[in-house]
Amino acid sequence: MRSAATWGVASVISTFLLAAMLAPAALCQTPAAGAPAPPANTGSAPGGQATPGQTAPGQSDSAQPNSPDELPTAQAPSSDDQGSMFVFKKQVEEVVLHATVVDEQGHLITGLDKSAFSVTQNGTPEPITSFRREDVPVEIGIVVDNSGSMRDKRQQVNDAVLNLIRASNSQDQVFVVNFGQNPYLDQDFTSDVNLLQAALHQVSAKGSTALYDAIVASAAHLENNSLLSKKVLLVITDGQDNMSQETLQEASRKLQQANGPTLYAIGLLGSGLRGEGREALQHLASSTGGVAYFPDSLDQVDNITRTVAHDIRSQYILAYKPRNQNVKPQYQTLQVQAHAPGYGKLTVRTRSGYYPPEGNH
Question: Could you tell me the domains of the chain?
Fold first, then answer.
């Protein structure tokens, strides 16, 4: 039986963060039948990952940029350091953007260089100080609707999600949240496909749809895990929110913190997914640089998840230091454009803005 405890409703963020930092095993992690029980809390996150404030195996915490004006670059593990993860080191004041570029036919464009891009913040051009176009490991939160209307859809959804995981970088760190009235963390960060498969089958398929609560809690969990800087949420639902304490505005603000996650959404056919619910998913996805998909049938979901995996692995990473480091703690609008000889009109998908960290003013 799954533990009765959940990521609280009235205090979903604070409860979630505290539990994530102090007791990973208490986060409603329920092993599937035959799966190993979670280890006792030793101060480390599941799978040997470093908790916030710790250092991953083989990773030095003393690496610093060569000079205050030089952004540190990504560091890949050396051949004799198999335990290290690719980490995009960053200074507090920089903004990191993950950008997907498509042409007028919607085809991914992956061969551009730094000179093709321009970034503006609040209408002011910002010089790009770091640029990469590599497949880097990602932290992914899989957030799946567990309400009653999903009962007949879950097997195909689970198969499609597993195909996404298999098509992703083998060093990705993935967690699974099943939600109905409350969100359950059924598997914390891991690269083990078998553990993720077991978590996806923790299905009760009953209750209401607290979508925004699940998104806020999952975004907080990503934020609290600092090993990898590239973060993604994949949300799958067939209904609109009807139970959350959090609002759409609060969920949107949580997602749009500086260097927050990219959200992809799949809205399945269902009587509960009306215009308002579709618009909410579209807003949450597009504002973070992701995409909301609304397939006509379940048979299309597998192709969608494979497309998402390819999208994630084909992104550019751009970083810049805002000219004004004393901006007010209000929403900062962003625009990224791409132009290159030999291409027609290019569209860049990335976040539309962010809220500066408190204390940056």
Answer: 95-133+316-354 (no CATH), 136-313 (3.40.50.410)
